[in-house]
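Model it.
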Amino acid sequence: MSEGRYEPVIGLEIHVQLLTETKMFCGCKLEFGAPPNTHTCAVCLGHPGALPVANEQAIDYGIRIGLALGCEIAPRSIWHRKNYFYPDLPKGYQISQFDYPLCEGGRLGDVRIHRAHLEEDAAKLSPVGESGRIHGSSGSLVDFNRGGTPLVEIVTEPDIHDPAKAREWLALLRTTLRQLGVSDVNMEEGSLRCDANVSIRPVGTTELGTKTELKNMNSFRYLERGVEAEIKRQTALLDAGEAIEQETLHFDPRSGSLTPLRSKEYSHDYRYFPEPDLPPLAPTEAQIEAARAALPELPEQRRERYATDLGLTAEQATRLAFDADLGDYFERALDAADGVDAPVLANWVTGELARAARERGAEGPHATKASPEAVAALASMVAGKQLNRGSGREVLAVLAAEGGGPAAIAEERGLLGMDDSGELEGIVEAAIGSQPEAAEKVKAGEGKAIGAIVGVVMRETKGRADGGEVTRLIRSKLGI
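Modeled.
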């Protein structure tokens, strides 16, 4: 790869299954994992004469998504038929929106939103015969339960120039949608699927190159690796003097290979025309205001509050705001904290506790047995010098593994700080006497030499002494 010669240009198309009780245009129940073909009717199976009726809840969720992304909500949007043949599309077309979508414009983070529109999902092909293959050796069966599920398709502008940034932005979008409550955004179950449009161009130019599309990537890592692989492929083609063809590709995360699926379609290939069985969507001002009132605090707003009101660093604020579970945990700990500054507590949650969770093979603090209240109490004990930092980490490890209260754990393990300042002074004097060379070096200005004396004190006190107080006493007794 010619490092630095080309700039990647990446745009994303995200399909979000909405968390409604029923399908987009009929009353069939939505239930992931239900026995195949048990939630179907004449409408979602495309029987002649069956008429669709739009799901009001799905429209409301579409408006909420648009408002959360800062989009303009169209006063009038049109349903269209998107025509193509596929075994899991019983009508031979998909009801979608084309040139008059529900939402246009907007921005999330530093990525602009081109549009967001409502549509219905296709059904799902299931293999016959060999498990684990896309199609079995004996053919495929179709499960129509998913057919007709309400979707919002979100299309970004080509504002992303790095595969890692694409991954980060998709994670931010997922958190935003989860906070809205419009989808469970479970990528493993297909509730959130992402396509990536990828092109490259010489650094310093503005003209877009020929783009390819990577289809149906259902994990953050899958997206990042797929885009990386396609950038390398396109770079190799240009370096070899070959042209890039506009096509749709499949990325296999197991082998890292890219396989062409078909030449890329254009809008005229789908023969869009207005859906004759559905009236245009015309949300009232009352509907839009009700959707606006239902918006929770969104990740971008939470990050700003953490930074401005709580004084968290940019890294802390972003980490807590963009991970909803972690942020909720922190807020519960903050409510219970006594005498601990918010940035200090944030360090315990995002640093020490996250590290303890990883050591236990857990994904986050909720997967440990440490309650937010216990972590807040532990941080208070360290801030009040009842425990030193090292002992605090030891207590936290027990909290993560077993739960309980930090005070009881610290007392049981003999980790509580030393209350008798006279006892500590005596230990410090003895330590200085046992390390005469180090003492002389400290008095001569060699600051690092104090570590030898501190080490003796910490061994004698079994780590219970406060390191800062020990250092202060040593310097005082040496006349520094």
